[in-house]
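USER: Study each token:
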Amino acid sequence: MTIEGTRFGEITIDGRTYDHDVVIRLSGRIVKRKKKLSKKLYGTLHTLSKDEAKFLFEKGCEQIIIGSGQMGNVHPSPEAEAYFKKHGCKVLLEPTAEAMGVFNRSRGKKIGLFHVTC
């Protein structure tokens, strides 16, 4: 699986372009981000809640790679960070354009969350 590119409002993975935030599972399956899990608590999509962290995490995951948006606005809440740490899962946070390269180069057991706007 290769993330080929991103620009404001979209991301292209293996030749398919998505116009919404995506999560890449350990299996490589691509699903739509459940951003309402964070918005209901914080009123914004830019703070990743513990509930969304629970949705993201899968047993066996060594790292979560977060593409924080074109301008880098997304970040995990302290509760989400603590949840990942408790489960031994490293969090790598970069603007989406940089995070896609990190994801492509990483050989570990990883999950990716990519925010495609701000």
The radius of gyration is 13 Å. The beta strands are 3-7, 10-13, 16-18, 22-24, 30-32, 47-48, 63-67, 75-76, 90-94, 110-114. Residues 96-105 form the longest helix (10 residues). The chain has a mean pLDDT of 96.
